[in-house]
Design a protein that fits this description.
The chain has 15 helices and 17 strands. With 399 residues, the chain is α/β, with parallel strands linked by helices. The strands form 3 sheets. Strands 7, 8, 9, 10, 11, 12 and 13 form a 7-stranded mixed sheet that branches. A 6-stranded parallel sheet has the order 3-2-1-4-5-6, with helices on both faces.
């Protein structure tokens, strides 16, 4: 059934405006009835009659059958989405924090009220990874899903490493272009890709994971020493999310910088692009690359979800409903590079073994094996000391 779509839009920032532009410039059959915004003083680029400051003008409007939620506030977004589903409206959202923190409850609400919640735009911008996992890989045995899940941090790393820009200048550029969040730690601290990875985990393995239980470490403490080390070894630095099946019973995930060699599929993925690698038992390895930041790429993913609603599309969550549940664990060994200043900082982590130890006049580093649980437990201490860590990419057997 190709139903008529009457849209109530929450938020008119970068993505909201991108969506509006796309709808206006294409022949897509949908109407934006009303737009709810927060800032009464901000000048808008479209007629004032579109806007309201009262969310119930959208949620209680029987003409509106689709709510598109594109605001920053995750808790307010959850209340909007929950109320919309309970009111018999389908929902499209790009709010990865809200979806990741409430996904199991949202799945239950969808089933109870027989409504659809689609969120392709919440993960990896223009790459259709959620629907690909939900449909193409619904019965496939997945070994891992990994990659660059944040276009903002990848843009910053490209500018710093390839153009020798300062970290601060690269970050400012990313914010001016609308790639980075107003609170940059969400991107550069690895929180944004962590939320995305939790969502991907549900579709890849049927597992719901609390983001608070996932280790994420960002690029805020990156220095010229780390960049020089990478270049001397023929590596590039990328902030990667890694979701992997350890064995028949367990899976794990983490977000942290990685050293990757030139032969790696993501070595040449630069600027605001994302790259996702899916490794499976039968279809082997597939790589998806696309823009992961910006109003139009993300807006196009929102539009794709809206379009799917015309035909009553819903996620089936087959891995969750029919699959064998896996346990999430952080008890896995990783080989990491750790750049530090003093010997007492080296003692923060309990290394199982150290293969390389370098002591210089202005910085020191070690390469060794540490358990992911250790990293999780000491994260705040490592960040407070501005210690940089990166995964070497070496695959180790799980304990």
């Amino acid at each position: 059934m190709n139903k008529q779509l009457k849209i109530g839009l929450f938020g008119f920032g970068c993505v909201g405006q991108g969506l509006y532009d796309i709808i206006e410039k294409t022949s897509f059959q949908a109407e934006i009835v009303k737009i709810c915004v927060k800032n009464r003083d901000k000048k808008r680029t479209i007629p004032a009659h579109y806007f309201t400051y009262d969310k119930y003008e959208l949620l209680n409007n029987p003409e509106i059958n689709v709510i598109v939620e594109l605001i920053d506030d995750a808790q307010e977004a959850f209340q909007i989405v929950k109320k919309a589903l309970q009111s018999g409206k389908d929902v499209v959202t790009a709010n990865k924090k809200m979806v990741a923190e409430h996904l199991q409850e949202l799945v239950e609400i969808q089933q109870e009220y027989n409504q659809a919640l689609l969120y392709e735009a919440s993960v990896c911008g223009s790459i259709p990874i959620i629907r690909t996992l939900a449909e193409y890989y619904d019965n496939e045995l997945l070994y891992s899903v990994s990659g660059i899940f944040n276009g903002s941090s990848n843009y910053i790393l490209s500018k710093v490493i390839l153009e020798n820009l300062s970290y601060e200048k690269a970050l400012k550029q990313a914010q001016e272009l609308g790639f980075a969040e107003s609170n940059p730690v969400l991107d550069v601290g690895g929180f944004d890709p962590k939320y995305k990875a939790c969502i991907v985990t549900t579709h890849a393995y049927g597992v719901f994971i609390d983001p608070e239980e996932v280790f994420n470490y960002g690029i805020q403490s990156l220095s010229e020493h780390d960049i020089r080390f990478a270049q001397e070894k023929g590596f590039k630095l990328k902030l990667l999310a890694t979701i992997s099946r350890n064995n028949e019973e367990e899976m794990t995930l983490h977000i942290m910088p990685h050293f990757i060699p030139e032969r790696h599929y993501l070595y040449y993925v630069e600027q605001e692009y994302n790259g996702v690698i899916v490794e499976a038992a039968f279809s082997d390895k597939q790589i998806f690359v696309g823009k992961g930041a910006g109003g139009h790429p993300t807006g196009s993913a929102v539009l794709s979800d809206i379009s799917a609603l015309r035909y009553d599309y819903k996620y089936s969550y087959k891995k969750y409903v029919f699959g064998q549940p896996l346990r999430y664990t952080r008890h896995v060994p990783l080989e990491i590079y750790m750049r530090y200043r003093s010997e007492d900082e080296l003692k923060i982590l309990d290394f199982e073994e150290i293969s390389v130890k370098y002591q210089g006049t202005d910085f020191n580093y070690v390469i060794g094996i540490v358990n992911l649980n250790q990293l999780f437990a000491q994260k705040e201490v490592l960040e407070a000391r501005e210690i940089f860590i990166a995964n070497t990419g070496r695959k180790l057997p799980a304990h």
